[in-house]
Specification:
Layout lengths: L5 E7 L3 H13 L5 E8 L5 H11 L4 E6 L5 H11 L4 E4 L5 E2 L3 H11 L3 E11 L7 E3 L5 H7 L12 E3 H4 L13 H12 L1 E13 L5 H4 L1 H18 L5 H16 L2 H16 L1 H21 L1
Parallel strand pairs: 1-2, 1-4, 2-3, 6-9
Antiparallel strand pairs: 4-8, 5-9, 6-7, 6-8
Helix pairs in contact: 1-2, 7-9, 9-10, 10-12, 11-12
């Protein structure tokens, strides 16, 4: 097998139900020389056996890293990258699907734009009963992404590709920041170069009650707050409106159910896409925040 150009990193924890479908989607989506790195995080549901079966099926194209005990996704990602042979690292989760042509399009973008370190895409959510549940869009260019990254994440984690060389200049994924370690990583990579998204759905994300964004939602909101505090020191000083948004986001994560909060999150992205309306929305938010602070 020729040296892979792309290493597709897939952390696995009790993911036997959908893992084969995910890995198949990776290899069926591309003609590039790629490898899939499966990092099993102490699974107890037969995932280890499934990983071995896939390694045998895709001989030389699937590597396995095994943890006997659960160590968390952050350590899975860092260990997986240590064994990666590709120039580019692509992410996808154990239950998601890669769209045909994704890797080619992201590799072409990074090769044609050497000043960029990360490229993502739109994503489509799907459920067991609805193949087209929702689409989540993201700003496209570096300026637009860094205009919002103090409030909204610039990427969907399972849709990104980044340069391994850039990743190695960071401190790696932070276990302390999990499960908001991806947002923390985008800040670190964004300090090294430009960010972008491709305006197409290149990853389909399975939306179900056992998804990590549902199961770890409250902790994710707490850690997102902590990541934002890090950004306030290391990226730039936030506006009062941004700081108030962080507080409201954290409070909502503690009070409201995950599905409601994610619905609001997707709605906010759609409002942001409508620039005129979203601009006025954020201006109103800032004025409200100043008025609230003055009243106190």
């Amino acid at each position: 097998m020729e040296k892979p150009l792309v290493s597709v990193l897939i952390p696995v924890f009790n993911g036997a139900q959908y893992l084969e479908e995910t890995v198949h989607s990776v290899f069926e989506s591309t003609n590039l020389p790629v490898e899939a790195i499966l990092v099993d995080d102490g699974s107890t549901d037969g995932s280890k056996k499934r990983c071995c079966s896939l390694a045998a099926q895709y001989h030389g194209q699937v590597s396995i890293v095994n943890f006997n005990k659960n160590k968390g996704m952050t350590r899975c990602l860092n260990e997986g990258i240590k064994v990666a042979k590709g120039e580019y690292i692509a992410r996808i989760n154990q239950d998601d699907l890669m769209v045909k042509g994704r890797l080619e399009k992201q590799v072409a973008f990074l090769e044609n734009h050497p000043e960029h370190v990360v490229v993502g895409s739109y994503i489509e959510l799907f459920t067991a009963t609805n193949k087209h549940f929702d689409m989540v869009k993201f700003p496209l260019d570096d300026k637009a992404l860094k205009a919002i990254w103090m409030t909204l994440s610039p990427f969907a984690d399972p849709a990104v590709m980044y340069r391994e060389s850039a990743f190695l200049k960071t401190n790696g994924y932070s276990q302390v920041m999990w499960p908001a370690d991806d947002v923390h990583m985008w800040y670190m990579l964004g300090k090294l170069g430009k960010l972008a998204n491709i305006p197409q759905v290149l990853t389909r994300v399975r939306w179900h009650n056992k998804a990590g964004s549902i199961m770890s939602h409250r902790l994710q909101m707490k850690k997102t707050w902590e990541v934002h505090q890090w950004a306030a020191i290391n990226i730039r000083k936030p506006s009062l409106g941004e700081y108030a948004f962080w507080a409201a986001e954290y409070a909502a994560g503690l009070v409201f159910p995950p599905r409601f909060n994610w619905f609001v999150y997707r709605l906010m992205r759609k409002l942001w896409k409508k620039r005129q309306f979203s601009l006025s929305l954020w201006q109103v938010w800032e004025k409200f925040s100043y008025a609230l602070a003055w009243a106190k």
